[in-house]
């Protein structure tokens, strides 16, 4: 399979599919629903199934032996950029992050049966997965500890935590910080509290574990931090997409909005601001490309460095592009 | 008294002289009077940049009106106003010194009155007839009448002078039709300052006149606009054959643009003072937020706090500057102050986001209270004229670069 | 005396005088001389005498009883802004900083005779003075200690240290960090090493003390830090002037330089950049005004806070304005 | 091999395949050969952004020419060049991979040859006749001929197409008169790429043609320009009835603007690669500077170091990008890279200033060595087209905004 062509095909497929389903309208209706009765309504289930199952996006990085396409993080990052471009509000990134963690788990001649099952259900059944990570300023686990074989504690603000069918969590255990799989049957026993907030493109929930079974899939500290790096990379990829979607919408608008008898897109101040956004999108995208390539070639050290730099750059440019979108739309942007 | 307010010079005493004791006495009494009802009336502790419509809104407005009336009676509501209309007949310096003293007291917010007092009133005071001044100025400053601004239109944002809302003469009246937008407080206002095209054949600017229109007049429809913060501080206003007497014209026929510029420049100057978004109240809560977190000793945060502090102090110092000290920038002082203000608000927004992390966008106790501030910041770049317009104004009218 | 009118008169007087003497040409010739034979040549002595003695700028803040005008730091700050505007390369700021330190020394019914002499010679004889301060990242003295009544050590990069007739130094003594006066007779015994570098608007020299007499004029830590604050304020005032001079020269040029058939000052990108410079000059100037007013009213706490903020803002805007000047002059700016 | 060079992918091996061993062998041998004479020839350890004229300049040039010849003989000087002229006939990918390997070796600087190789040669290769290609390309890539650029004029900076230098036809020759400026390395160059107005009656762009002019031709006078760093990297070039054969025309009569654009876009792309100001050599010295100071654990400095690192890595990744991955920005890739480059250089300048404090502008050991870098940074915003021009290009040719 020629990866280059695939990546382009993936991008086009997702973009066309999401454009047909008007994600932005979905995000707006989620926001409206929340404003009338706080507590976020879930994403559109049918769009998720179409994306995950019909388009096979969830299966991208699942190894072929478990029903996936066996592609690397470059393909996944491309897919997430497209989803970000359309502000897709479903669990694509959370599922991709969990998938990356599962696919990276040490196999030793084939994955363990529970990991294999989890990967299969993601690839074939449209399962929603998520990855519970520690807060940015915390070393160690996500707030949950493994006590014997039972999980206790609260994982806060887990992306799509209320809808997740299965979870991979970074957990404190007696063997140190580990990756723990919480399979569907176990996850049903967790108490889930949906979180409100102002991010209508991702639903969050606190997951409260009070003696829920979980199994360690890796206790290797390097493996744990590799998984966290991949999650940063995937978040960065999505943010680059968000930034580029914001720029595209801005360009569309300033090419038609007229003031002082001419389109405002003709003003040098606006042109230069858009050019600056474009430069920084390309810089962040280049760092994402670099990190993804390192992940594929197994260069975890380069990945570690470039994933965090990519994330920082992508965060900044997504804010810059979004702010530019609001400003250049004038009053209607706000 | 609030704590953690920005430092202030002590030459307030020199300017206010023997009035100072009486002023402090009055304000202390008002602080006590309003403190008793505060717990009831303040809907929540959210920190926003705009007054937004919501459940407690009318209570807040009622308290603002009461305070305004009390200040008027004490001669503290309209220091620079002419004595014959109930103003104080004081100098700008005296008025600025009074503002500093007012900042020290924890009084109810008068934010909902600001458009009337700092946008509408200056226009009437500078351009209006004696009759229209008598009818509206005392009422605005007594808190009896709440004003709003009817300038922007869907197709006239930065290019305000292209306004299309038409006013055609009919006897002693004008018949007004059109649509206005981004009207802050449109739904609570009693009167609006209306920019309309009275002569479609005259030039772009010369075809405009300015009016006072009653917001309850038949044909006026106000529709609140949902905004990014989730709230609604702005409205659309539809004008459908609204009858406005010619006696409500502010300034000469065809002088609407000049009247609008008075309002806009007054608005910009008010924004950077303690009356604007960076009230002593917000600043003291910001200091508390910084001090409460475990990152107040983080050097990266410290750099940001220092930058914010410098900007706020500079803004206050500029607001207190004598016109002569502005040099060639005297006629664009409002634009300079406004750009500094929005830069400061952005810096604060970034500081808050860095301090709170994800807790600023999740429904977390305490930190989520700042989400409205962070989300509201972008609007200040647009309201009162975009950054681009301010920079054009500074470059062309201040620095003498070609138009 | 009405201070407001005076300040304007001072500004105009200095601006006219320095414009007549083309400071910029002097800075260029200093640079040229240095490039052919490294080691900076001194400022123009005649211009300094005219400024200090004929215009009486050196006497501005010297108390009236010592032959000065008894004005406060607002007047001095204004004077330094004008000098900065013209990039005056002589010892105006170094002398003003030392004067501020001397004038602030505790008097107790009249200054000590040596302080009074120093102030008189500054006010009336065009004496060059300087203030030796600790490096930015150092607490304590300027590298010199007072051992009994003799100074030992090296004060590095003292502004106009090679030309100074007298010096005030922040020195480590057994009583803590103190202000020490090194009068002309003593300063003659110091070894002076001129420093090269790329700042052609101020000459620097290392002053090496090997048992040179000096007298403590204040050992009060608050007094010492008050003097350092005033020095920061005066530096900020000069920098605001430098920035505003750079902006003025830029505006002059872009109003006449033509490209694409129009003056480049008509382009929005250049207009907006100049507007941004102007906004930040006013902000820094306002902080300087505030700090100077606090110094005059004796509010040392407000001075302390606002002087450092003024200095930081002035440093930034002077770089921004200078960079804008280089950029907007295109190739000839470089 | 240098230490502290930025990290690099290992797919270099995949691209270069079995050539890699031979390449490394050649480069190791060259490293050894030039190392022996290095101590003599390197005039000092200053870190500058431009090659400046000075005492050791001709030695440096001689070594650059020797290295270039050796690389040419090994097939490593001109990988993408046609085989019949001595090029390698390789792909762009191969060439980029080779650059990465070259970065690993501590070889003499070839900065003085860059204008010839990355500005003049691409123009000749894309637009020149077979004859002119044969005459100049191998000589440039062998290091026998040093090139310079004769584009800008005192009144034609950003508006390059308004060039006034005139070329009038005289038999088989052109007679050229005018003045050029900002010519890097004008005083050491053998040939110049000359933009001249060949048809004063044609349109602004259509009136231009491009030529190769010998810099030693009678009538050519080169005068070095003193610049902010104190050095002289640029020259003014006066052309006084200089005779240039028509056979030296690059491209069609009237196609000068199109040839110039090829040169400019190639220049921008080269700047962001390791060939530009951010060479592995400068980066490793920067890392050493950060590590040597006591502020390398200061969080404020750490933020800046991370930002610089991100920009440098992003720039290298963009330089290695396939044209197809640029999307709609493919035709403005050079402008994007150049803006990123100058931002990076500014960030480094600020970092250095913050790290060294006053020691960067005083004649202090070690730290003063960076003063040329800090002072040179502003020039990069101008050389190769100002930031404003690059942003216009991106907005209009890349993002499709109106001209």
Mean pLDDT across every amino acid position of chain B: 87
SSE string of chain A, helices as H and strands as E:
HHHHHHEEEEEHEEEHEEHH
Distance between the ends of chain B: 48 Å
Biggest sheet strand order of chain B reads 1-4-5-8
Number of E-type strands of chain B? 8
Number of helices of chain B: 12
Which residues of chain B sit in consecutive blocks of at least 5 with pLDDT less than 50? 1-9, 39-44
| Quaternary | heterotetramer
Largest interface: A-D, 35 and 33 residues
End-to-end gap of chain A: 46 Å
The number of helical segments of chain A is 10
Content of β-strand of chain B: 5-15%
Structure, explained:
- The complex is a heterotetramer, with 2 copies of chain A (334 residues) and 2 copies of chain B (403 residues).
- With 334 residues, chain A is of the alpha+beta class.
- Chain A is built from 10 helices and 10 strands.
- In chain A, strand 4 (166-173) and strand 5 (176-182) form a beta hairpin.
- The model of chain A is unreliable at 1-5 (pLDDT under 50).
- In chain B, helix 9 packs antiparallel against helix 10 (333-356).
- In chain B, 50% of the residues are buried.
- Chain B has 403 residues and is an alpha+beta fold.
- Chain B is globular and about 70 Å long.
- Residues 1-9 and 39-44 of chain B have low confidence and may be disordered.
- Chain B is built from 12 helices and 8 strands.
- The longest helix of chain B has 24 residues, at 333-356.
- Chain A binds chain D through residues 247, 251, 254-255, 263, 265-266, 268, 270-272, 274-276, 278-279, 282-284, 286-287, 289-290, 293-294, 297, 299, 301-302, 305-306, 309-310, 312-313, and chain D through 7, 9-11, 306, 309-311, 313-315, 317-318, 321, 325-326, 329, 336, 339-340, 343, 388, 390-392, 394-396, 398-402.
């Amino acid at each position: 399979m020629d990866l280059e062509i695939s990546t382009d095909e993936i991008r086009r497929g997702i973009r066309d599919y999401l454009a047909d389903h008007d994600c932005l309208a979905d995000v707006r209706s989620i926001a409206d629903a929340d404003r009338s009765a706080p507590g976020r309504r879930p994403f559109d289930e049918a769009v998720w199934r179409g994306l995950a199952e019909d388009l096979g996006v969830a299966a991208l990085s699942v190894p072929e032996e478990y029903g996936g396409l066996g592609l690397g993080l470059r393909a996944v990052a491309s897919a997430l950029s497209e989803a970000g471009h359309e502000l897709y509000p479903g669990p694509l990134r959370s599922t991709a992050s969990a998938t990356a963690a599962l696919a990276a788990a040490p196999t030793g001649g084939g994955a363990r049966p529970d990991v294999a099952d989890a990967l299969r259900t993601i690839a074939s059944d449209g399962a929603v997965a998520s990855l519970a990570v520690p807060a940015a300023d915390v070393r160690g686990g996500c707030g949950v500890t493994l006590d014997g074989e039972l999980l206790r504690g609260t994982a806060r603000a887990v992306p799509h935590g209320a809808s997740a069918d299965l979870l991979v969590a970074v957990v404190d255990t007696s063997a140190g910080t580990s990756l723990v799989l919480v399979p569907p049957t176990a996850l049903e026993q967790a108490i889930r509290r949906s979180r409100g907030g102002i991010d209508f493109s991702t639903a969050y929930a606190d997951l409260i574990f009070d003696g829920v079974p979980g199994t360690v899939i890796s206790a290797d500290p390097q493996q744990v931090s590799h998984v966290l790096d991949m999650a940063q990379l995937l978040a960065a990829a999505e943010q680059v997409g968000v930034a580029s979607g914001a720029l595209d919408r801005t360009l569309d608008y300033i090419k038609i909005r007229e003031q002082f008898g001419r389109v405002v897109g003709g003003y040098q101040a606006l042109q230069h601001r858009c050019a600056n956004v474009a430069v920084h999108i390309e810089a962040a995208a280049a760092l994402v490309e670099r990190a993804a390539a390192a992940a594929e070639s197994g260069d975890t050290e380069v990945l570690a460095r470039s994933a965090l730099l990519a994330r920082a750059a992508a965060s900044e440019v997504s804010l810059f592009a979004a702010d530019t979108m609001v400003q250049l739309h004038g009053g209607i942007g706000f | 008294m609030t704590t953690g307010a920005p430092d202030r010079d002590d030459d307030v005493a020199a300017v206010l002289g023997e009035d100072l004791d009486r002023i402090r006495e009055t304000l202390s009494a008002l602080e006590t009077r309003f403190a008793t009802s505060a717990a009831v009336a303040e809907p929540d502790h959210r920190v926003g940049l705009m007054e937004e419509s919501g459940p407690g809104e009318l209570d807040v407005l009622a308290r603002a009106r009461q305070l305004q009336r009390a200040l008027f009676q004490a001669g503290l509501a309209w220091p620079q106003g002419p004595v014959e209309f109930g103003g104080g007949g004081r100098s700008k310096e005296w008025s600025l010194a009074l503002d500093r003293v007012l900042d020290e007291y924890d009084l109810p917010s008068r934010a909902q009155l600001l458009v009337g007092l700092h946008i509408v009133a200056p226009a009437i005071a500078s351009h209006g007839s004696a009759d229209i001044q008598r009818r509206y100025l005392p009422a605005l400053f007594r808190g009896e009448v709440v004003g709003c601004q009817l300038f922007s239109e869907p197709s006239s944002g930065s290019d305000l002078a292209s306004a299309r809302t038409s006013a055609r003469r009919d006897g002693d009246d004008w018949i007004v039709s059109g649509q206005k937008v981004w009207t802050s407080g449109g739904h609570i206002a009693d009167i609006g300052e209306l920019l309309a095209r009275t002569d479609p054949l005259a030039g772009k600017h010369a075809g405009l006149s300015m009016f006072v229109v009653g917001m309850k007049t038949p044909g006026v429809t106000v529709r609140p606009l949902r905004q990014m913060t989730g709230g609604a501080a702005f409205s659309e206003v539809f004008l459908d054959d609204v009858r406005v007497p010619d006696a409500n014209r502010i300034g000469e026929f065809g002088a609407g643009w000049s009247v609008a510029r008075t309002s806009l420049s007054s608005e910009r100057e008010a924004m950077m003072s303690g009356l604007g978004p960076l009230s002593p109240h917000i600043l003291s809560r910001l200091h508390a937020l910084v001090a409460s977190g475990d990152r107040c000793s983080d050097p990266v945060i410290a750099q940001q706090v220092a930058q914010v502090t410098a900007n706020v102090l500079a803004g206050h110092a500029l607001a207190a500057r004598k016109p002569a000290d502005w040099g060639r920038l005297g006629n664009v002082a409002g634009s300079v102050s406004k750009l500094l203000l929005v830069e400061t608000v952005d810096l604060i927004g970034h500081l808050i986001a860095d301090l709170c992390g994800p807790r600023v966008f999740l429904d977390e106790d305490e930190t989520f209270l700042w989400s409205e501030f962070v989300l509201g910041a972008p609007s200040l770049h647009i309201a009162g004229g975009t950054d681009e317009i301010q920079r054009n104004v500074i470059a062309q009218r201040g620095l003498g670069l070609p138009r």
